[in-house]
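Suppose you are handed a protein chain with no further information: no name, no annotation, nothing but its sequence. What can you learn? This example shows the usual starting point.
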Amino acid sequence: MMFLEIIASCVFHRKASTVTAALVMMCAMTTAGMAVANAHRMPSCRILKGTVESGGDGLGDYRVTLYASYIGKRSHWRALGTATTNTDGKFSIRLKRGWQPAVLFVVAEKDSSILASAIGRGPRAPRHVVVNELTTVATGTSFAQFIDGIKIRGNRYGMLNAVKIAEDMANPITGELGAVLANPPNGNGSSTLETFNTLANIVSRVVLWTVNAATTCWRLRWRRTGRLQQRFWTPSPT
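A reasonable first move is to predict its three-dimensional structure. Written in structure tokens, the prediction is:
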């Protein structure tokens, strides 16, 4: 199961907690007029640049894919281009044709770590983006009902509303908190922001585990009694 799907099913399932569900409700109620700034929109040259990071640090060797989710009577999901991040987490993707009418997503993957961002629709999508734990939680929660494994697709109005909600939670251009989530009636001390940050911290720990996997790994083994033991281990040098 894709990590985004895990976030969606755990957090915004119909039986999700009232506090967590309030995150989407409060953001949706204040969405009007809070769209991401028009600057840095997708140019006609069809090149998307960005950074994959966690905790402010760039993540190298991540496979980044730009996906288009076409909305309408025949909604479908299509990869438009791929790239691999450099040591600073930077990437550049030259788009294929057909990105204009779709909702666009950036997905970055490495081993067990998956980060994502809903960056907008067609020509209005930014040309520079940041993909991190905040954009991942914003995408997973906003598009919860539309996530099916690696694909995100659904009806026109639901998908367009979800894009706006994701932008309110996390800014796809900067990777920082969105204006609605960062300010009253949300903001510091609110249960909605605390819940959001808790989920983001969980994602960052998965990323950290992936970064350290080459030197420190988890070993699971069964004791003779049938009890599961978990401990750290450091591979011997080869």
